[in-house]
Design a protein that fits this description.
This is Outer membrane protein beta-barrel domain-containing protein. By secondary structure, the chain is of the alpha+beta class. It folds into 2 domains: 77 residues; 157 residues, Beta Barrel (Porin), CATH 2.40.160. It is built from 4 helices and 9 strands. It has an 8-stranded antiparallel beta barrel with strand order 1-2-3-5-6-7-8-9. Strand 6 and strand 7 form a beta hairpin. Helix 2 packs antiparallel against helix 4. It starts with a helix and ends with a strand. 21% of the residues are buried.
Length: 262
């Protein structure tokens, strides 16, 4: 589908970029494989680039670009005109790909479960819970996306004394700012957030800060939505106030998200 929407010039440029990448990695892959003692791991990146090029070449052929990719420089009259592209897809210079956020505005719904460790002077509690967030994102280029929005979550801690066991609840509302780096289907995030912390026993709010990181992997975009899943970790510091003492929270867990290109 992406090849159908790309212009012939863009297709040729992509193929040329792959050719350069293959040469940079020491290709052709068959020769590099022999030079490196028949060790397939040594040519893994080169093999991947070679397979991507073969896939693109076949997609270009099916899109009616030519009998093969080498026909790209032939006069139009000598190329095949048949195409397997849907009739509603037409090449457009404005098309920037489907599996990317580059130069797009997206709406991101994320959520998941987490484990938490809350530490105050003289007390450390273990807990679990979850959170959800809604972020507005903007693709800065093919690699970087900036996201910002709102989040709300809560955890239940295990508090045990000599006389009873309790599961007190704590809640966090946050305004996260996220910088996401894309590497093919993988992405890596760094996060800063201001937050408001309160508990079931004391609804008065204490301010705080968070720093976090996440690694995730995404699937194909379907009807404008790209699902992904990842693992993250974050450290929070709740500032000391007259309401409650300073507190450190360590949180980690799985998260799923839906990136909607609207």
């Amino acid at each position: 589908m992406s090849v159908c929407s790309a212009t012939p010039e863009t297709r040729v440029a992509a193929l040329a970029a792959l050719d350069r990448r293959i040469l940079e990695l020491g290709g052709p892959v068959e020769e590099a494989f022999q030079r490196r003692g028949g060790d397939l791991d040594e040519v893994a990146d080169l093999l991947f680039a070679t397979r991507v090029r073969a896939l693109l070449e076949e997609a270009m052929r099916r899109a009616g670009h030519g009998r093969d990719a080498r026909d790209a420089s032939d006069p139009p009259a000598t190329r095949e005109t048949s195409t397997e592209c849907p009739f509603w897809l037409r090449p457009s210079p404005a098309f920037r790909g489907r599996e990317t956020d580059a130069y797009r505005t997206t709406l991101n719904l994320e959520g998941g479960g987490l484990g938490a460790l809350e530490a105050t002077p003289g007390r450390v509690l273990l807990g679990a819970g979850g959170s959800a967030r809604l972020l507005l994102g903007r693709g800065l280029n093919e690699r970087w996306t900036f996201l910002a929005g709102g989040e709300f979550g809560g955890t239940a801690q295990l508090e045990q004394t000599e006389t009873k066991t309790r599961f007190p609840l704590s809640f966090t509302a946050a305004l996260p700012m996220v910088l996401r780096y894309h590497a093919r289907t993988w992405h890596y995030e760094g996060e800063l957030a201001s937050l408001a912390y309160f508990t079931q026993d004391d609804l008065r709010v204490s301010p705080g800060l968070r720093i976090g990181a996440l690694i995730g992997v995404s699937t194909l975009r379907v009807r404008g939505i790209m699902p992904w899943a990842g693992l993250g970790v974050a450290v929070e510091h709740v500032l000391e106030t007259h309401r409650r003492p300073a507190q450190w929270n360590l949180k980690t867990g799985a998260r799923v998200g839906f990136d909607w290109d609207f």
